[in-house]
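Title: Prediction job returns without error message
Component: structure pipeline
Severity: low
Priority: P3
Assignee: unassigned

Description:
Job completed but the reporter wants confirmation the result is attached to the right record. Sequence as submitted:
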Amino acid sequence: MPPGRMREATIDVGAIAANVGRLRHLTGVEVIAVVKADGYGHGAVRSALAALDGGATRLGVADVGEAVALRHAGIDAPIMAWLHAPGEGFEEAVARGVELGISSYDQLLAAAAAGGDRPSAVHLKVETGLGRNGLPPAEQHRVFAEAARLERIGRLRVVGIFSHLSNTSEADDRAALARFEAALGAAAAQGLAPRVRHLAASHAAIALPEARFDAVRIGIAMYGLSPFADRTSADLGLRPAMSLRASVAAVRRVPAGQGVSYGYQHRTSAETTLALVPLGYADGVPRAASGGGAVRIGTRVFPVAGRIAMDQFVVDVGDHPVGVGDAVTLFGDPERGLPAVEEWADTAGTINYEIVTRIGARVPRRQVSS
């Protein structure tokens, strides 16, 4: 860690590129690299560039603002945005060549109107059982027919049709797959022939080959984390790209019975040494992991003592020699001897997605490549 810095997340763009290459080889189809939510906390621009280096051909984001930010950064690859505010205008998106995910008849008309003399590029989303956005079966005939008409008169270009899976069970996902195939048939009956049919995100891209179609949307797996509870990153041939570190900010020798942090949820059982780590829930370290999280200092793992506060937490290192400035690792690549992010997720009762995505802007990101 650079001198004078007390916390940082290192982002291995080489790992992101390698993960995308691995998944592209595994699936054999086009990869849409999902860089929404600031690249799952890794940085949208660096993640997008690394994914494109790894063989991704398209990028996916949640909203138009995220897509425009990538355009401002000079990224000219196809970008798709699929979550829109009610009544949102799409003029800037279309002008910047952003492809729009369409989940309603009104959105379709708004997209067609936004293009002026140039056709707007859209992906029609169909509802297949997740209960979120997407065209419900009762709306699909009307939207497909109008999309085909608008395409014929040059107002619209239907690039893709897509949906999303629940990952509840193989049976549930196969039922959604059947609904998706039925929607594709209905679209074809109206004369639509999209080039990019995409249903699978990371989970199904790996586990359900029939769901791959023309492209897969890779999110968590491109950052080297497993979408499965029973398979690790290493099991999948992936490398975690983010490591979260800090430097010990203070060391204090205390007697037995010393209360630690707010509420004294932890009291020392014997004379011991407490080390202060300058990361807290404002930085994305989950307060729910209080008393259960653990960190690595040197070659040893130590528990969090007491509550995680907004800016800091305490670890009990016993009689182990620890000094101010020593490196503290919360998580990284287990294949390199670092704790897995899943350990923090399990302790906090959440998933690896949330831990990396919530790492706050106060934590500097340092880009590396290996």
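Comment from assignee: result matches the submitted record. The longest helix spans residues 170-189.
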